[in-house]
Amino acid sequence: MKAPPVSISVRDLTLRFPVYGVDAKSLKKHLVGVTVGGKLGRSHGATEVTALTNLNLELKPGDRLGLIGHNGSGKTTLLRALSGAYEPDEGEVEVHGRIAALLDLNLGIDPSATGLDNIRLRGRIAGLTSKEIESRLEEIAAFTGLGPFLAMPLKTYSAGMQARLAFAAATSVEADVLLMDEWIAVGDAEFQQLAHRRLLNLVERAGILVLASHEVDLLRLYCNKVMRLEGGIASPVTDIKKLDELLAA
Amino acid sequence: MEIATHMLRTGRRGATFEFAMALKDLRQSMRRIDLAWALARHDIVSRYRGSILGPFWITLSMGLMVLGIGVVYAQLFQMTLAAFIPHVALGIVFFGVIGGLINEGCDTFVQAGGMLSQTSLPMFTFVWRTVARNLLNLAHHLVIVVGVLIIYGFWKVANVPVALVGVALLIINASWASLLAGIASARFRDVPQIVTSVMQFAMFMTPVFWTADKFPSRHAVLQFNPFNHMLDAVRAPLLGKPLEPHAWLILAAMAVVGWGLTFTLFARTRRRIVHYL
Q: Which of A76, A148, A230, B246 has the fewest Cβ atoms within 10 Å of its own Cβ atom?
């Protein structure tokens, strides 16, 4: 059985966000002429933010796309749309391949449960059976490098330790499409190297990586393509070598 | 492996499409029903982590409540303990299932916000999580139910098969109310407070602590109280009493109408729920 190749295709994606429970009028006044964020409008009693407008994107195996842009330019929204959490208001998002999203460190995390239990929980959420998780537990545990701390409640972990755990658990699921927000930078140098190897490995297995970050160096390290978002409008996808031009634009 | 290898999300609208998507959500949640169980188990285990009795605190605290209320109210109502304690034990346990499902339903989507905003997990998974958690709670309470029925000799007259149908109808009905509470609470943050108040009010208006024979049987409090019908369908057969005529019919009708309306609401709001959170 040969599945279609891994791919992401986004066609004319427009995503509007209803924001409930804010006074749109006063908010509008505040936001007129602000450089960050999308456009505000109003419908059905909720303030509407247009987070992405007419976005097109085609990615094929081996693509590692970096997303840059201001805070609130729509990077995370795009990642969430790619993960299937947000539904388009217009257009289409189509993804072939198993998706792993590392957008929020706290996904399925129970602070009072141990590191190991949290790996199990994340594995279940990612779609593994408990048998599959047990068979991989050792490998995941080794990759986190947390050793005896895995038996400790997660609330005793530092942010970096949590990131290690989350990254190890999420990338152990053999995803084809990895969506990451910039927090990956929290690990220390040694972990960064491990993570780097694992990410490259993923891309070698004909996977796709989409990484949102402000860190130019990080993007150069991981990505071969880059796209800039501004107020929900995307630039064309360009080669990473032209990152400086894109930043200057 | 149950990972969606193809995901298509479109901006299509229209009632038919929204219904199809809601049904797809429901189907996918059924295919991954083990995830809902795993999450529910995790909820129970983590609630009692580090305690010596663990989840059996559920049993113990319920047992104490039954004992206390049973003794005091039996005196107040001039009833024998043998007649009153089984009544109140079944009342508290099974009204607890209804109340638990509806009250915790308020948190179904709010609590799952983190997961819903970065995965394509079916939304119904979290509805089943709430249901499964309450079923696990009920399993702990069954110790009390069985104990009371044995001690006071009702096991000889209890009609268990009929009671099980009643339990099923009770859960099916409380589940749609739970989903309804979940959607409403995600959108309007006043709803959980309203639901809590209403459920508390309902507990006193339903013959949980008192017996229905103190009322004329056609009284509105009994006749138009859905919780009374739900509770009675479980309690009467276990105490060896006949069911009210049409009890199953009323509950089945409630289930069909309730699920129909709630599912329609779910279909219409599904794409928005993640933005409510």
A: A148
Residues of A in contact with B276 (CB under 8 A): 20
What residues in A contact B11, CB-CB < 8 Å?
Answer: 14, 87-92
Give me the residue from B5, B11, B271 closest to A98, CB to CB.
Answer: B5
Q: Is A201:A191 a contact under the CB 8 Å cutoff?
A: no
A136/A128 Cα distance (integer angstroms): 10
Name chain B contacts of A113, Cβ cutoff 8 Å.
Answer: 42, 46, 49
Note whether residue B260 is domain-resident: yes
Q: How confident is the model at residue A113 (pLDDT cuts 50, 70, 90)?
A: confident
Q: How confident is the model at residue A39 (pLDDT cuts 50, 70, 90)?
A: low
> What are the tens digits of pLDDT across the range B78-117?
888 888 899 999 999 999 999 999 999 999 998 888 888 8
Domain count, chain B: 1
The string over A154-173, giving b where at least 16 C-beta atoms fall within 10 Å of a residue's C-beta and e elsewhere, is beebeeebbbbbbbbbbbbb
Task: For chain A, give the percent of residues with pLDDT over 90.
Answer: 1
Does a structural domain hold residue B5?
A: no
Cα Rg, chain A, nearest whole Å: 19
Counting every residue, how long is chain B? 277
Confidence of residue A185 (pLDDT cuts 50, 70, 90): low
**B8 CB within 8 Å of a chain A CB:** yes
Tally helices (H) and strands (E) across chain B: 12, 1
Q: Per-domain residue ranges for chain A? A: 1-98+223-249
Dihedrals phi, psi of A51, to nearest 5 degrees: -90, -35
Tens digits of residue pLDDT in B215-235: 777 777 788 889 999 999 999
- Chain B residue whose CA is closest to A179: B118
Residues of A in contact with B114 (CB under 8 A): 104, 106-108
Residues 145-184 of A with CB under 8 A from B: 173, 176
Could you read off the pLDDT of A61-94 as tens digits, one per residue?
Answer: 888 898 988 888 888 889 999 988 888 888 889 9
Q: What is the DSSP string of B40-74?
A: HHHHHHHHTTT-SSTTHHHHHHHHHHHHHHHHHHH
Q: What is the CATH number of domain A1-98+223-249?
A: 3.40.50
